[in-house]
Structures are given as structure tokens and as C-alpha cells.
Write a structure and sequence with these properties.
Helix content: 55-70%
Structural class: mainly alpha
Shape: elongated
Low-confidence stretches: none
Protein name: Resolvase HTH domain-containing protein
InterPro entries: Resolvase_HTH_dom (IPR006120)
Pfam family, one: HTH_7
Largest sheet: none
Mean pLDDT: 85
Oligomer: single chain
Organism: Rhizopus delemar
GO molecular function, one term: DNA binding
């Protein structure tokens, strides 16, 4: 496994924060989707990226109630 440059890592992080898909980020930066997924999971663990997808139909209060 080769190390990628700090510029590419910063590009990956900024594109992931702008809610781009793994495939689009990989094509734009020039790395594999697996590499992008690795950086996405590290962002999730640090809590610096929002989950994409359909918003919940019930409030957090109702989730906690059930």
C-alpha cells in the first residue's frame, strides 16, 4: 500500500464533507473507492461528517420514547 499525498487526503475530506459519493470523490481525486471509504469511516468516527440519505420521518424525541 502506497501512502497518498496530504493534498489528496485534504481533497478527499473536503469532498466528503460536501456530501459527494465515494465513487465521485474517487474519480475526482484519482484514488480507489476503497481508499475513499477508509477516509469516510475515519470521519464518521470523529463525528465530522453528516450522514447522507433520506431524513427520518419521526423526531429524535419519538425515537427515544420507543
Amino acid at each position: 500500500m502506497r501512502a497518498i499525498s496530504n493534498d489528496k487526503v485534504n481533497s478527499i475530506y473536503s469532498l466528503l464533507r460536501s456530501k459527494k459519493s465515494n465513487s465521485k470523490v474517487a474519480k475526482q481525486v484519482g484514488v480507489s473507492r476503497t481508499t475513499v471509504q477508509k477516509y469516510r469511516s475515519s470521519l464518521k468516527m470523529s463525528g465530522n461528517v453528516n450522514e447522507a440519505g433520506r431524513p427520518s420521518l419521526i423526531s429524535q424525541r419519538m425515537v427515544n420514547y420507543c
